[in-house]
Write a structure and sequence with these properties.
Length: about 180
């Protein structure tokens, strides 16, 4: 006897129900298929984020100048717990300053120039998808706050934009 309902092994039906299936990422928002102005994939966006994070660590280290010996000497671990290593002490001292520098770089650079240093090195930029204008402070701020949570950037829509970009009306595109 044939099974009427199917199972989870059968997968979705061939018809997605979307009458306007796009041929390429970015078609629904009016972006070109390839070249300058086309949407960027996740690997390049992650690489730009890592460059920005390394720059932020360097700037935070210059500002804070953590001394691992002093941090270890001032630590008071409970009995049975080892003292932190120099790496752990410096990492703990730089965690919040690094985040603050990363936030400042992301907000100011995107609002003023349309890209962060990491995006510049990887030839990317952030654009508004509704009108050809600068991203602006509020959108840059909202985008950076959502990026802090990481998860919105991992989920993408049909065009390949992260949920943080979709929420702020922006997109990361190739600049050249």
């Amino acid at each position: 006897m044939a099974r009427v309902t199917g199972s989870w092994l059968t997968g979705p039906s061939a018809d997605s129900g979307d009458p306007e299936a796009s041929e390429y990422r970015g078609e629904h928002i009016g972006l070109p298929r390839k070249g300058a102005g086309s949407l960027v994939g996740l690997p390049r966006r992650i690489a730009a984020l890592m460059v920005d994070w390394v720059i932020s660590i360097g700037i935070a280290a210059l500002i804070v100048r953590p001394d691992p010996q002093q941090i270890i000497a001032e630590s008071d671990p409970p009995p049975g717990v080892a003292e932190p290593t120099a790496f752990e002490a410096v990492s703990a001292a730089l965690s919040t300053p690094t985040w603050l520098v990363w936030m400042a770089i992301g907000i100011v650079a995107v609002a003023l120039f349309g890209f962060t240093p990491g995006q510049y090195f990887l030839r990317l930029r952030v654009i508004r998808v509704d009108i050809p204008a600068r991203v602006g402070f509020l959108r840059a701020f909202g985008r950076q706050v959502l990026l802090t949570f990481v998860v919105p950037a991992l989920f993408t829509d049909g065009d390949g934009r992260g949920m943080h970009d979709r929420a702020t009306g922006t997109a990361v595109v190739r600049s050249r």
